[in-house]
Design a protein that fits this description.
The chain is α+β, with helices and mostly antiparallel strands and about 260 residues long. It is about 65% helix and about 20% strand. A seven-stranded antiparallel beta sheet has the order 1-2-3-4-7-6-5, with helices on both faces. α2 packs across α3. It is rod-shaped.
Length: about 260
């Protein structure tokens, strides 16, 4: 019975800070049906051995199962709970009373346990210090193991991220190469089309200029011929006038001659 209870024991150690008093160290050894508590201020020590009968009686007073009662006591004496009022006061005959408050269904309650002085305070204090040193070493080892495991996990994650990044980079380069190739094909096609349109425009401009030049030369030729005809007409008119003027005096002379004959 004792060996099975020892095998299932849980240990806690709380540095309890109570206003206006020196810090206390509360070590708890918790079983399924009972628990042991030891308190030291560094000089003196006190003990509380809660038997199965006492735990059952207290649990019945609060209408709780034994397991729930022990779990709640372990919670408040394993870690100092915020908002909870702790006291460690004299109870007569060098005895002490440890109490703590908690809320249940909106009602503030208080649990109290009586401690008797230890006959070997040095041994109790040394045991608590040894427990703290061992716990610190175990925590240090656990911390190293946890950090090593965390580092290995982070290393694996980093390798996966690096591999994924390289894959994304390669896929990005392939995608860009494919897009650039398609873009260059479209661009070259557009350039060829633009060159074709430019050549067509150039040919149209040349043809238009040629037709304009031809029309201008035709207009010039027609104006030249019309000018020549006008000059010829003017010359013929002048000749006609000249000939007419020559003919008029001759007629007059003939008339005069005829008149003299009479």
């Amino acid at each position: 019975m004792e060996s099975s209870s020892t095998a299932t024991a849980r240990h806690t150690c709380l540095k309890l800070e109570i206003p206006s008093t020196d810090p206390l160290f509360v070590k708890g050894t918790w079983f399924d049906t009972h628990f042991h508590l030891s308190v030291t201020d560094g000089l003196r020590a006190w003990l509380c051995n809660a038997t199965e009968e006492e735990v059952q009686e207290r649990a019945a007073q609060w209408d709780q199962p034994v397991a729930e009662y022990i779990e709640l006591a372990e919670r408040y004496l394993g870690f100092q709970q915020p908002g909870t009022v702790y006291r460690f006061v004299d109870a007569g005959d060098d005895h002490k009373r440890l109490s703590w408050t908690f809320e249940r269904e909106g009602t503030k309650l208080e649990w109290r346990w009586k401690f008797q002085p230890s006959y070997d305070s040095r041994k109790i204090t040394a045991g608590i210090l040894d427990f703290l040193m061992d716990a610190n070493i175990n925590l240090s080892v656990e911390e190293v193991v946890r950090k090593t495991q965390s580092f290995e996990k982070l290393k694996l994650e980093a390798e996966k991220c690096l591999e994924q990044s390289e894959r994304f980079t390669n896929e990005k380069m392939e995608f860009e190469s494919e897009i650039y190739a398609k873009f260059l094909g479209v661009l070259n096609s557009k350039k060829a089309k633009l060159r074709e349109l430019r050549d067509q425009l150039s040919k149209q401009e040349i043809a238009g200029k040629a037709s304009v030049d031809e029309e201008e030369s035709t207009d010039k030729t027609e104006s030249y011929h019309s000018g020549s005809n006008a000059e010829e007409s003017e010359e013929e008119a002048e000749k006609n006038i000249t000939s007419s003027s020559k003919d008029i005096p001759a007629g007059r002379d003939r008339g005069r001659k005829r008149a003299t004959r009479k």
